[in-house]
């Protein structure tokens, strides 16, 4: 289950961000996960709960924003959804796409830090 290594990396990076902001704890982390990133959101949530124990994220929530996989058709000059399993043929003109525009994302987009008491 590679989601555990991903969750561990999320926890470590969120702790770094919180420390840089002078925060003591983290209450939430938001991540964007593309449809083609190879990450199962439910497994990531479970792994995050395991990885956060004993860290500054012990009580943090993981918010996952799922990103739909979309490709670009040069022939139609339109974007289209590729679906799962991915199908890279344009549904309008029946040509193959050469450009994936979204769907591979795996990034932290927000860390809600709790300020350290003065």
UniProtKB/TrEMBL annotation:
Gene3D superfamilies: 3.30.2320.80. Ni(2+) binds at residue 2. One of its GO terms (biological process) is protein maturation. One of its GO terms (molecular function) is nickel cation binding. Pfam families: HypA. Zn(2+) binds at residues 73, 76, 90, 93. Keywords: Metal-binding, Nickel, Zinc. InterPro entries: Hydgase_Ni_incorp_HypA/HybF_CS, HypA/HybF. It comes from the Bacteria. Transmembrane segments: none annotated. The keyword tRNA-binding does not apply. Coiled coil: none annotated. PROSITE patterns: HYPA (PS01249). Belongs to the HypA/HybF family. NCBIfam families: hypA. PANTHER family: HYDROGENASE MATURATION FACTOR HYPA. This is Hydrogenase maturation factor HypA. It comes from Streptomyces pluripotens.
């Amino acid at each position: 289950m590679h989601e555990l290594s991903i969750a561990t990396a999320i926890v470590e990076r969120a702790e770094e961000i919180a420390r840089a902001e002078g925060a003591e704890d983290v209450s939430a982390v938001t991540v964007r996960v593309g449809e083609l990133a190879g990450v199962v959101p439910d497994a990531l949530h479970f792994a995050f709960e395991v990885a956060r124990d004993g860290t500054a994220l012990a009580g943090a929530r993981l918010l996952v924003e799922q990103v739909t996989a979309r490709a670009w058709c040069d022939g139609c000059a339109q974007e289209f959804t590729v679906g799962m399993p991915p199908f890279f043929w344009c549904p309008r003109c029946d040509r193959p796409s050469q450009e994936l525009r979204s769907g591979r994302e795996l990034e932290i987009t927000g860390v809600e830090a709790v300020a350290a008491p003065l």
